[in-house]
Each structure stands twice: as C-alpha cells, then as structure tokens.
Sequence to fold (475 residues):
Amino acid sequence: MKADLVLTGADVATPGGVVRADIAIKNGRIVCLTSGELTPAADEVIDLSGKTILPGGVDTHTHLREPGFTHKEDIVTGTQAAAAGGYTMVSGMPNVDPVTTTVERYLDAIERYKQSSLVDFNHNPSPTRLEEVGPLAEAGAMGFKVFMITDKGAVYPHMPELGVHHQGRLFEIAEEVKKTGRPMMVHPNNQELIDTLSDRAIKAGDTSYQTVARLSASYDGIVFDSAISYLCRLQEVLGFHLHILHLRSPRSLDVIRQAKRKKQKVTVETNPHMMFLCNDWNEIERLGPYALNLWNGPDTTDLLWECLRDGVIDVIGSDHAPHLREEKEIGWTNMFVAANGTPKIQETLPLFLDQVNAGRISMSRLVEIFSSAPAKIFGLYPRKGAIQVGSDADLVVVDTQRKQVLRNEDMLSKCGWSSWDGREVTGAVDHTLVRGQFVYRDGKIVGKPGFGRHTKPLRGEEADRLMDMYAAARV
Fold:
C-alpha cells in the first residue's frame, strides 16, 4: 500500500496515550499508525520531529453569524480562525437571521457552510417549534440549542424569539428532543430573577459594566444555579440528554456532581472565557465590555480547573461570539445595551496548551475536552475526535514549547480583536489538516472555502451505545 501522506517523527496523542509514531493517510482517512520499516511509502512524507499531533478540535459551540450578521463574522472568516486554532469540525448556533427553527432554515444554513467552510461542520437548530424537532434530527442536526435567556436592553445575540423561560414550555421541548436522541444544549438562566435585578440597577441609574458583570454572580449565583437545579431535575424525570452550557458556579457544580453520580444523562460544557477571563475581577476592570458581561464570582478558578481535570466538566466549547468594536464600546457607559460575546476560536487551544505546560491540566485530558469527548457526546466518534486507524485524518500539529504573544493583528476573525491581546502563552498551532488536507500550514491559511463537509451524527441505538460507553468510562 502506498499512502498519500505520511507524518513522521512526532509524538501522537492516540486513545491509548501519547506515543511516538508515524501517521499514514490515504483518501482522507488514517490507514496506519506505525514506525520505522513498517511505515508505508507515500507521495509526500513530512518530518515533524519535536512536534505533537493531536486529534483536530471538535467545537460544538460557535457563533459564525451567518446568515444575517455577516458584518461581525461569516463562515469563511470564522472557519479560517477555526483552522488557525486547531479546530477541524465546528457547529453553529441558531441565533442568526432568520433564526434556525425549521428544516428549511437548517438546510439553508448547511448549504451556506457547504459553499464557504474550510473545515467540517454542522449546525445546532432551536427546538422552539415542536413539530420541526423530529424532521430537523432527520435532516442531520446533531444537537438542539435552548436559550433560557434574552438580553436586557438589546435584541441580539439572545433574541426574544429564541428565549424559553416558562418551565412548562421547557418541559414540552425536552419531551420532544428526547424522541430524537440528540443532546439538548441549554444556556441556563433564571430570566425573571435577572430581569428583577437588572431593573433595580437601571432604575438606580447604574448601567456600568462592573454592575452588569456582578449581576449573575450576585446572591450566591442563584440566577444561574436555580436554572441548573431545575434542568437536572427535569432530566431526571424525563430522561433526555441534557448538555449544560457555560458552567461557572460552585453550587451548580455540586448539583451536577450529584446528577452524574446517579448516572443521569447529563454532560457539561464550559468555555475559555470562564477559565481565563470571567474568573478574574482585575481583567473585568481592565477590559470592561471586552471581557464579556459577567463575572464568575469569588473563589471559582481553582474549582473550575478541578472539575475540568476530574470530568465533572466534559468539554470545552469555544463559544466564539464575535462583535465589532463599535458594538462593544458603548459598554463602557451602558453595558446593558452592549453586544454580548467575544471572539475566541483561534485562542482557545494555545491558552490551554499554556496550562498544560504550567501543569494545571494533562495533555491527555486536554485532548479529551478539546476533541474526543465532544465527538463522543454528539455522535461523531470515532470518525472525529480520535487518531486511530479508520478515523478521518483530522489533525492539529502543535509546538508545545513555542512561545507566542496573542495579538489583535494576528486574529483571523472578521472582528479583528481578542480579549487576550498581549498575553504570552507557551504552545502554538503549526498545522491543521482536515481529512488529510492542510487547511492551515506554517502559520498560513491554505484551505479553500467549500472544502468542509456536512458531518452528521450517528443515529438511534448506535448513538445511545456510544453515549453509554462514554458515561461509563467517565464515572
């Protein structure tokens, strides 16, 4: 057998651990993991000695802003940034225009990705139209996004049309999503309570970014925690797959630990801003609206890292959410009307590689949260999220020892800025391959729009078995 490409000499993060191996690729798949004389000949051989090869990142939480908001980002620029950040698979969110609530709109979104994406893709619709939930799953949706939040003083990015605040309505949606076997991804929030607290601040004339950041952490985090308590109880009685987003509070972690001990089908995502931005009040003071609009509260940093290490938190979603500078600047005086979200798909992996070097998380655990766990949870494994024979050759080559400074001018997102501008990290992405083809090479985008493919999840019993295996291993 002659391979198309062989990558030699690198340390390779396989499901069994990090080993020194050669990777042979043919027709977009990994056909051999070996070394020495056993390595097959190839049309191209690349020596990557001194580098580490990880399975490409699977980002199940991105906001690429297309259709409707392409002044902020579009699929081309968003997936260029993804490729530079080591992601080989992304999935968009439904808060676009028109909102993704029907099969017709879902397929329109997929067609846009087919024309523009450099990496493989899917899209997470909203399940607010119950009659569309089953057909959306049939069309290939790998998860459903529920927003228990709408914005105070703004209509985007948390649009009223997508907000679900009534517990009975949430119950009906969960019943319908359960029939599909897909995860229900929920942005938890107690809207009535946050409205009350926000109204108090506005009435007092206090619209500062400091006050808005403190609101969701105020009163011991009850805005966030009360929503998660209800969600976990709802999952217990209905049995759907609950995927909790944006985890950040101590009391919520206790509730989720208990649910996992009882082997409930509950998985959890947190985000790079929760680990590197919203946990540091000094950064919120310095960055203002560029530090999003929330604070985790005191004494959360070490606890979040502990939960990342021990598996209470299952995945990192970038929550890449770009806005233009002029949409953020108003937040210096009125944070309630400023655009909510930050770009971060290019920075996520370098930030975490830096923490591997600092000893805060192991490389094997980083691979899990960045690649293999999201692939398993969303029915994509082992085609995605693994370096093993038969898997897609979705690979990211990193230099774990190269220092770099994250800079606004190097960001490929259309918005052109980063909350971590000026931060030095140790660890960098050298190359990214999607199905054996370079899309990012030696620090430059080489992939073409339209190369990405619509990647659908496993279905039915096969997906259930994968999730059960993942849950058993995690426990």
Remarks:
- The first helix runs from residue 75 to 84.
- The chain has a mean pLDDT of 95.
- The first strand starts at residue 3 and ends at 14.
